[in-house]
Every structure is written in structure tokens, then in C-alpha cells.
Write a structure and sequence with these properties.
Layout: E1 2-7, E2 13-19, H1 25-31, E3 49-54, E4 59-60, E5 75-77, E6 82-83, H2 85-89, E7 94-100
Parallel strand pairs: 1-7
Antiparallel strand pairs: 1-2, 3-5, 3-7, 4-6
The structure holds FE2/S2 (inorganic) cluster.
FE2/S2 (inorganic) cluster binds near residues 39, 41, 45 and 77.
Amino acid sequence: MIRLIVKDGDGEELFNDLIEGEMNFLDECAENDVDLPFSCHAGACMSCSAKIVRGLEHVDQTLDGDKYIETDEDVLLSCIAGPKQESLEDTEEHIVELELLM
Ligand code: FES
């Protein structure tokens, strides 16, 4: 299982919950009434970019599509990145912590 934590650039926590679905992080937060910034929803802009503070090994950077722009390894696009299936299925709780960059 994965606990997703999302903070804004000031360190304020916007989302902190266990996630179960194999859904990108942007949509996962929206499903839980937390709207993160986005524009294209297709991996082609940087509006939804976030730094991966913890849990890089539990993130699938292209779960829902291709990245059309280059980012650092520890920066994801929340509209296409989501949890790795094997990390979701693991009974141990893994933490993925993101800090919004926009
Ligand atoms: S909203 Fe444009 S890359 Fe995610």
C-alpha cells in the first residue's frame, strides 16, 4: 500500500491518505476533492510538476502516458505519474511524498 503526501511550495500539507487505485496522482487527489494545479493533463507542460521528496522507487513516472518534456529524475508530472503496481500490492506501507513546484 502507498500513503501519498502532497505539500505545496510552502510546506503546507494538501493531501495525506492511503491510495488504492492505479490512477495518476493528479486524478487521485481530485477524486478526494483536492485540486492540484494542471493545464494540459497530457505530460506536455510543467503545470503539474512536483518534486519527489520521498518514495521515488514507488513511483511510475509514465503510468498514464508519455512525458513530452524532460524533467530531472526526482521531478514527476502528476497528470501522468502514479504509484507502481507492486508497491500498491505490498502489504507494507510505503510513503510517496511530493512537493508541488508550480
Ligand atoms: S498538466 Fe501538463 S504536464 Fe501535467
